[in-house]
Amino acid sequence: xxxxxxxIFSLISIFIIILITVLSTVGxxxxxxxxxxxxxxxxxxNNINLKLTSIKFKIDIQQISLFLETSxxxxxxxxxxxxxxxxxxxxxxxxxxxxxxxxxxxxxILEEININELKELSTAFKPSxxxxxxxxxxxxxxxxxELEIYLNKNNILENFIIKxxxxxxxxxxxxxxxxxxxxxxxxxxxxxVLIKTIYGEIGPVKxxxxxxxxxxxxxxxxxxxxxxKINYNNQYIKFKNMIKDIKFAKNLINLEAxxxxxxxxxxxxxxxxxKYNYKNQGKILKADFGFDQxxxxxxLKEKIKKISFVNLEVNTxxxxxxxxxxxxxxxxxxxxxxxxxxxxxINNDELLKLNLDAEYDKLIDLEFINYKKLKNTxxxxxxxxxxxxxxxxxxxxxxxDKDSSIFFEDIVFDKGKFLSLKKVQINTSKDNIKNNDFxxxxxxxxxxxxxxxxxxxxxxxxxxxKNKKSIFTIK
Length: 475
What we know:
This protein has 6 helices and 29 strands. The protein has helices at residues 2-24, 34-44, 115-121, 128-137, 237-242, 458-462; strands at 28-30, 48-52, 55-60, 65-70, 73-77, 80-82, 84-91, 103-110, 113-114, 138-151, 157-172, 178-188, 192-202, 205-216, 220-233, 252-267, 273-295, 304-319, 323-333, 339-347, 351-360, 364-366, 371-373, 379-388, 391-400, 405-414, 417-430, 433-442, 446-452. It has a 24-stranded antiparallel sheet that branches. It has a 3-stranded antiparallel sheet with strand order 2-5-6. The longest helix is centred in the N-terminal third of the chain and has 23 residues, at 2-24. The protein is elongated and about 115 Å long.
């Protein structure tokens, strides 16, 4: 008897193994569930018309779930044919013994769609501005996608997942500049949209390994991280026209840079921006600016026609409250020597703060104190400046070289015109002989301290033509 039961158990086990193998590979063909699948998909969206032929009853071992699969079907959405490769309908096992089987999930794998097919299908999409985007801005591309639809016990849509890949994308951005050779993968459900591994080119800018995330809650959150490689020269006419209104950007000759970018934007229910935060960090390998009208200064005798930068470390943080930029590296004037500098710039709607430390090797000529720094000798220059509306306050200007130091404190300008000065401290030498050693303090009374003041150039200064600008004018 024991042997008999062992044989029966073995036969049942073999039968179950064969059944599972058949159901997990070949499946059992049936037409019993055709109407069920059509009905359930129609409950999700009544604009879908599904035509089924052959259906196979199978088992998913990984998910331990029964499903119905068909590879020869046709889906029409708003009378537009959607090319479908495969449909799977996952059914609750216990509900099979009941009169109405419960569908848990519907999975669709779509055929690859090229951009022309997508434009035809887009006529059925809502909203209409999404259709216009596809028709007018998307030029080339291929789309591979999968859709999973999850239903609750009442056969009502509970969630969905759509995922896939886009390749060979060409899309128009702004001012006729295209996003070329783009590719990315995507994932979306009811609450989030995630776009990953974004690659592409926008004019001289290459986007490398980017990602983009939308959180679709009551307040929409957009987050993005991406790396950019920039190789710009002024032969990019369309790109040059796009940046022409940005201050000094129109003077940009070329730019090579590697920048990592992070963006976060919060929108309200009406898609208005509530707050934003943009950070970048990276290196500008090379940048050149050329000026049609040379930059000039009262103190600096050499007109500046070109400024060049190399090996700049850049950190930027722009947000709803304030903007902060830190740049350090080397600069050159008129193709001269490259010298180190460091710039820290903070501003908001009301206040601008700027701190600059740099070395300078061009000629400096301050006639009113008979000080002249020769070309190709190094002076260390520092500037601490604040600007609030029309008021510019230079909190500190300091020039230091081997034999001299010049210090100004709290120079104030209103609409570019000199308003006040707190302190001047000057120690200079000429031909290795000290010619200035004094300080001036401007309070209720003007207090002058020191041992020496070189006034030999003052008569020449006072005799200059009246149309010359004051040394205390700033723009």
